Structure formats: C-alpha cells, structure tokens
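Next comes this protein:
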Amino acid sequence: MSLNGIDISNWQQGIDLSKVPCDFVIAKATQGTSYVSSDCSRQVEQALKLGKCVGIYHYVAGGDAAAEANYFVDNCRNWVGKVVFCIDWESNQNSAWGNEAYLEEVVKQVKARTGVPPIIYVQASRYAQVKTVADRQNCGLWIAQYASMDATGYQATPWNEGAYSCAIRQYSSAGRLDGFGGNLDLNKFYGDRAAWAKYAGGNGASVKPAASTTAKPATQPVQSRRTYTVQAGDTLSGIAAKLGVATSQISGYRSGNPNLIYPGETLTIGGSAAPAQSTGATYTVKSGDTLSGIAARYGTTYQAIAAKNGLSNPNLIYPGQVLHI
C-alpha cells in the first residue's frame, strides 16, 4: 500500500487543493528563526478539511538548533497530533550543512517538545550520514532523488526505488497534475493512512513548553466548578462549544492567553471567568482569513490585533479562533 502526494510552499501560494489529485500534502511552515510561509495556515487547514493526510516542514538554516526547533513547534503547536512534522535538511541557505550533529539537535528538540520523532528530508547523496541520525532518534526518512527534470505525473515505481529504505520518496520537482498550472514536487509514501497517522502521533501527541518557558498555571477563586483536560488540537472556543459554556467561563490556562492552551493542562469550567482580553468586539476566524484583512474590516491594524491577542506570529491564525478586536 502506498499514497501519492505533493509538498508545497509559498511558491504555490493560493493553490486549491480541492482541485489537485493527492492523498497527502506536506506544506512548508518555517525556516530558521524568522520566516513563516504566509500561505501555510490556509494550505494546511484546507488539506485537513478535505480529509487529506497532512504534513508540515521546517527548513533548517543553521545558527541555533534549539531555537530553530522551538520556532517550528511554537508556530505550529495547534497541529501537533494532527499532522506529520518534518525537518528539511538541505545544503542551500543552510550554514550548518554537513554537520549532522546540528541536525540531530534540531530533531531531538522537536521530538522533546511534541513527543513524536519528526521525519527527516534529505537528498539521496547524504543518505548514509542522515540515516545514522534517523536510526538513533527513531525518525522516518524522506529521500529526494530524481531521474531527470522532465515533466511527469505520479509514478507507481520511481527511478531507483528500493535502493534505500525510506518512509517517503520525492522523485520529481517537475510534476504536472490537474488543477495546478505549475510544477509540483511529487512524492510516494510507503504506507497507508493508518501508517501516516502513526508518524503524526495521533491524539497521544502533546506540546511541552520550551525549557525557557516560565509561565505557571493560573490560580483563581472558584465557585461550583468542573474541569476539562485539554486534548491535542483543542481551542478554547471549541471547548466552550463542546461543553455549552461561554469562553469567559473557562479559566486556568497557564499561558494567560486564551489562544495558547496546551494538551494535558486542566482547565476550570463554570468557575470564575478568565481575565478579559478586551472589552471590544470579537471575531471568529474563517478559512482564508488573514490578520491584515480582518484589521482592514474593523478599521484597525494587524499589529494592534496581534498585540491584543498575544499572537507572536501574525501570519498564523486558524479557522475557529476567536480574536479580540
């Protein structure tokens, strides 16, 4: 059993995944410690809504391994347990290239934060060195090797298949598929949807705070109360809807920010209200929204909304997320 899929980035901004045949989609999320793909959130959320198997990847830039890993996880924490996390290890724009010890530090930190070993992407010529890291860290491998740069559709048996063991094989960057007018990277996953879900970690995955995190659980007076343990993928508005309460009746999130809740933490339901973030209007994010677009609608700036809601990255907002305007 195998799956056919594509990997995409901001170069495919606006791609309509409902029109492109694919079993799985892997979207570029971050690079280094300062870049977030502006179309990543839309791409991932559309793919999830369509029922695709989904992955995200971080492009290693070199510099500070732990900082890169934390940047990746912090920007993508809402997808832990839902998508496969991947580390892209390439020679271009990577000052650490050739130093697999650096790669291993990135992998170890992502694994420590999410509880799930990421898949490592690398070109076939570096297979032996990276496989050593993957074996030690229990990671799958995503290997890139092309027969040519000729345009092609999906291939059942890519060139040189079987020359190495891997979870995913990328065999073309000149893929041509219905529904998109440009080149696409084509990939084969050696497994079924259940195998993909295991690489994602399923509902057992959770985000652990970075070592530098100092936030402590909130302590507030309570009246009659019940509790709820946050699951991977939960949002405060989703929990409120599930339990039939207002978000103001949920308290105890340790970050102090209702947009940052962590799997495994226990929230208080129906007790004293969480501190109000704003006395103004609220807006529930819809698929395709951007923070700048929402700001324009309300006559404010995206910086003001980001600050009011404690958003460290204004390029990553999620459908269903409630913003204070």
